[in-house]
Design goal:
The complex is a heterodimer of chains A (204) and B (536). By secondary structure, chain A is α+β, with helices and mostly antiparallel strands. Chain A is built from 6 helices and 9 strands. In chain A, helix 1 (3-26) packs antiparallel against helix 2 and helix 4 packs antiparallel against helix 6 (168-179). The radius of gyration of chain A is 17 Å and the shape is globular. In chain B, helix 11 (200-212) packs antiparallel against helix 12. The chains are: A alpha+beta (204), B mainly alpha (536).
């Protein structure tokens, strides 16, 4: 992509956000707002992915509260998907963990959108500490990930253009997770199915 | 919806150069119940509002157009103490500017928001920020009043709660301890944080604390490793440059600072420092280019200072472009009329006139610069004045000014390097500046020793005269201040007590407590004062 491509995408992304704000003001447009914000997020993903390919991404690791992040994300998505019951569980969350909150939030928002979109009735989001990793987990009660998505994810490839998107969000999330390094351990994202799709992000 | 009702009274300033975005932000905050909203489009307007209104929240876009950005506004506000600590500064960034923001984050905003965001997203974040603001209120208030002792006490109180702000509070407490020269305690906290996680700011903090404690080898080791592990953490480059100056390697120090400036070109404090260092290293044309570019970019912005023009004029004068130097200073005079700026401008004019061979004008400007009380100037102003004194042949005055900087800020390697730069700029050798630094600390030891031995010999009057004159001149030198309190207390206990003496003694004692409540001399001072009470 050249400078012009990037500038146009950047601009389009911001305009979608602007449109979402206007609809928010008018009220009762939750699904339209969600669609706009998700499209805008996908453009952000694309721009970030391009940046990552060109010059790499730098992360800023600070002390954060995982419970706060989970509760913020679930509060944010509840009104956007009023027909989906979003349950958050932070009981086993450590008080503090170290990560780049802005990028982790972006990755979790991607996952949350997917989960809410494919869920029948319910999405569960939780966070806990396990074996030296912080584990963010999102489960939905939808049809689950297709075999090819799971295989492509393990091979770190984009999916074919499928019903479940391009896989860009997932690849970006994996990159974001793996940039988090602590004591020679890298973060990662794991996908599997168990009564629906299960997305897990491990942060060392 | 408790938050929504409470936000209606909050004063919010929105800073964004794009009219459409300003409108959107205003609209969405309005939807959330914020009623007291003000919007501005650039740093200049933001500054005007901030100096007249106490805002609760500043929502600022990183990119403000014309090469200016929100980080510059934040740095200016923090450097000049214009932002109350409990005012929330939220930086809005796009995906392409986020890294610039965090790279430059020597002074961090309270939060970052990635564009675009909905009102709902903003509210979710804002609630968390408010929660933090309420918990940290006592620390913030004490910080604004520069009551460091209280800041530390409040940090200790919150640390016992072991809550989610634990690491944040450790950072605040350690930074405060460093401010008041309690580097040993600060280094313990940094080590404690590092045991939990190797965070770059804690590593840098530890390196700074070790340097303050005189362990330069360890400090260098930590800073070098940090440079390898985090090659974009520019604050560490600044520190490494200070260490290299301390090691008398000015060329390497300059190179390191250039690297930092290349990673993060928009930081004005660094640009200034780089300009001064380039001049000290004889790179006058480079300094001129850097400063001219910076001033052009910030022509209409209040973040520029008289010092920027002074440095430009200095670079020009050294290349015998004295006419251009004086033009730059004339422009500076039209923008900056405050006391300190006037001193810096007059000092720089004096240098330019001297270089042009116009010694009479030079003398006139220098006398103007020296007319006020030169004992109470901030270090940067004293340094500028000292440089003009050297050029104008007033060696003794120049040396006194530099010694004052050194003696009032003992063991501050940043200011020591500043003194070395002044000396280098006027063509003095490195050994001359080292001699000056050594002489300065020897003088302090001599004053302390003389004062104490005179007091021991019962010559209280002479001892008091000597130590008080030093204490008044060097209000930040803890060894002098504590000895002043001790000698006064001994005199009160052993000879005549006057009300004035007791008052002065208690004043110095309080100053010691403020700077270091665990200072070893305090118990001696107090036992002397107790003796006085018993006599009474």
């Amino acid at each position: 992509m050249n400078e012009l491509d990037l500038a146009v995408i950047h601009d389009a992304k911001n305009n979608l956000g602007g449109l979402a704000l206007r609809l928010e003001k008018l009220g009762n447009f939750s699904s339209e707002i969600e669609m706009l914000m998700h499209t805008s997020n996908r453009l952000t993903n694309l721009l970030l992915w391009h940046k990552h390919q060109e010059q790499g991404m730098r992360i800023n690791i600070e002390a954060n509260s995982p419970s706060d992040l989970i509760s913020e994300i679930s509060n944010e998505y509840c009104p956007l998907f009023p027909h989906i019951k979003i349950e958050s569980n932070t009981e086993k969350a450590p008080m503090i963990w170290f990560y780049d909150e802005l990028y982790i939030r972006l990755a979790l928002e991607n996952a949350m959108h997917n989960a809410c979109q494919f869920a029948k009735n319910k999405v569960q989001i939780s966070v806990e500490e396990s074996n030296g990793f912080l584990v963010f987990k999102l489960c939905d009660d939808g049809p689950g990930f297709s075999k090819s998505i799971i295989e492509n994810h393990s091979a770190n490839k984009f999916s074919d253009l499928s019903r479940r998107g391009t896989g860009l969000g997932l690849v970006l999330s994996s990159s974001i997770a793996s940039m988090h390094i602590n004591k020679e351990k890298n973060g990662n994202v794991s996908l599997h199915n168990s009564h629906g799709a299960v997305f897990e992000m491990f942060i060392p | 919806m408790a938050v929504i009702t409470s936000v209606s009274n909050m004063k919010v300033l929105i800073v964004d150069d794009m009219p459409e975005i300003r409108k959107q932000l205003q609209m969405s905050l309005g939807t959330l119940g914020f009623e007291k909203l003000q919007v501005v489009s650039n740093i200049k307007e933001a500054m005007e509002r901030i100096t007249s209104i106490r805002f609760d929240v500043i929502l600022c876009d990183y990119n403000l157009g014309d090469g200016t950005n929100g980080q510059q506004l934040l740095e200016y506000l923090r450097t000049n103490d214009l932002l109350p600590r409990n005012c929330l500064f939220i930086m809005i960034t796009a995906e392409n500017s986020y890294e610039s923001v965090v790279t430059a984050a020597e002074c961090m905003p309270d939060d970052y928001l990635l564009k675009p965001f909905t009102a709902g997203q903003f509210l979710a974040r804002f609630e968390k920020l408010l929660e933090r603001k309420i918990l940290l209120e006592t620390i913030d208030t004490a910080h604004d009043k520069r009551n460091w002792f209280k800041v530390i006490n409040e940090c200790d109180r919150i640390l016992t709660l072991k809550n989610k702000y634990y690491i944040d509070i450790c950072k605040i407490k350690a930074a405060t301890l460093m401010l008041i020269d309690r580097a040993e305690e600060a280094s313990k906290i940094y080590n404690e944080v590092l045991k939990i996680r190797e965070l770059p700011w804690a590593q840098l903090g530890l390196a700074r604390a070790k340097a303050k404690l005189g362990n330069f080898e360890l400090s260098r080791e930590i800073s070098s490793k940090l440079m390898q592990d985090h090659p974009h953490f520019v604050a560490n480059f600044d520190f490494m440059s200070e260490l290299l100056m301390h090691d008398n390697q000015p060329e390497l120090a300059l190179e390191t600072l250039k690297q930092a400036s290349a990673i993060c070109p928009s930081n004005l404090n660094r640009t200034r420092h780089l300009g001064a260092m380039a001049i000290a290293n004889g790179e006058h044309a480079e300094a001129e280019a850097l400063l001219a570019k910076t001033l052009k970019k910030h022509r209409h912005s209040p973040v520029r200072q008289a010092a920027d023009y002074a440095l430009l004029s200095r670079a020009l004068s050294e290349q015998n472009k004295t006419k251009e130097a004086l033009t730059a200073l004339k422009e500076a005079s039209s923008h900056f009329q405050d006391e300190y700026s006037s001193i810096v401008i007059a000092a720089s004019k004096s240098i330019a006139h001297n270089k042009a061979g116009n010694h009479e004008e030079a003398e006139k400007e220098l006398n103007k610069a020296l007319a006020g009380n030169t004992k109470v100037l901030p270090p940067a102003i004293s340094a500028a004045l000292a440089e003009a004194c050297f050029v104008g042949g007033k060696e003794e005055v120049a040396n006194t000014l530099l010694k004052q900087i050194l003696q009032n800020n003992p063991d501050d390697i940043r200011l020591q390097s500043r003194v070395k730069m002044v000396c280098a700029s006027v063509g003095k050798s490195i050994s001359e500046s080292i001699a000056l630094i050594q002489e300065s600390s020897k003088e302090i030891i001599k004053i302390n020793n003389e004062g104490v031995s005179k007091a021991k010999a019962g010559q209280y009057k002479e001892a008091i005269e000597l130590i008080i004159s030093a204490a008044e001149r060097l209000p930040n030198n803890l060894s002098i201040i504590s000895n002043a309190a001790l000698i006064l207390a001994a005199s009160i206990a052993n000879s005549d007590v006057t009300e004035d003496m007791l008052k002065l003694c208690l004043q110095y004692r309080q100053r010691v407590v403020d700077l270091n409540p665990d200072h070893p001399k305090l118990s001696q001072i107090d036992s002397m004062l107790k003796k006085t009470k018993e006599l009474a």
